[in-house]
Fold:
Amino acid sequence: MSINLAPVSSNFLVDLKTKTANSHKKLECLPVSASIISSDMKLSDYIHYLCLMHDVHKEIESVVFPLLSDIIDDIELRKKHTLSKMIYFILIVIKLLQPEFLMLKK
Structure:
């Protein structure tokens, strides 16, 4: 059985936001979350966060997506782990090109 998902109703989105608010609050209290929403966030903090999110996406895509493949037609198009890995590597390159890093390497 395969379905084409229609636009999501605003009631569903409000319910989802309300029912997941507590979980989101708990996530915001984690050190890794606090580091990326801090006004003095460092690039290394964000790179670490992206690395963790890459692992989360990859696991969801390898475990959960196959279970949904008969229900959601375009599940393969929804994969994000490759994109998060690419962004992670771009940020590593940016960090390596920062003047203070280059000065340390001399």
About this structure: The chain has a mean pLDDT of 79.
